[in-house]
Amino acid sequence: MGCKMFLLVGVGLVAAFATGCGPDIAAMCEAREACFGGNEADLDACIAFYEANRDRASRVGCVEEFDMSFACREPLLACSTMDAGNTCTSNADCSLQGVCSDGTCKRSSFDLPESYRDACEAEQNAYENCSRW
User: Fold this and answer.
1) Spatial contact of 43 and 31, defined as CB atoms under 8 Å apart
2) How many CB atoms are located within 10 Å of the residue 80 CB?
């Protein structure tokens, strides 16, 4: 029974990506821009960037690898605040949309949490190996 379930899940994933739907780039970009405080133009630029990368992957025969890597990473991405390493007395002392807090510049990050850094390594490696053009 377990093998049949894995087969059905695998076939479902292949069918979803083969239909041309691809990963939900817009949802990921919405979460990213909410983290950074982006506006509609930032959202549009994010979507255009990832769609252009997917189109490039498609042209070189790597769209499946792109989709699998994206689908693996997307639900794991999280917004967090990180120490930028600079001391400060006001927000003006901080660059890259940083905020001065307790004498240290802080900035938002939208990435995989440390505990998930290797979670999508196989998918990312497959995409990178395929897309080396």
Assistant:
1) no
2) 12
The DSSP secondary structure of 1-69, one letter per residue, reads -HHHHHHHHHHHHHHHHHTT----HHHHHHHHHHHHT--HHHHHHHHHHHHHHHHHHHHTT-HHHHHHH
pLDDT at 15 > cutoff 70: no
Q: Tens of pLDDT along 40-54? A: 999 999 999 999 999
Model-level pTM?
0.74
Give the chain's largest Cα–Cα span: 62
Nearest one of 73, 84, 78 to 50, comparing CA atoms: 73
Nearest residue to 88 via CA among 72, 97, 100: 100
Tokens of 51: 């769609």
Choose among 128, 20, 21: nearest CA to 65. Answer: 128
Sign of the torsion formed by the C-alpha atoms of 8, 12, 13 and 14: positive
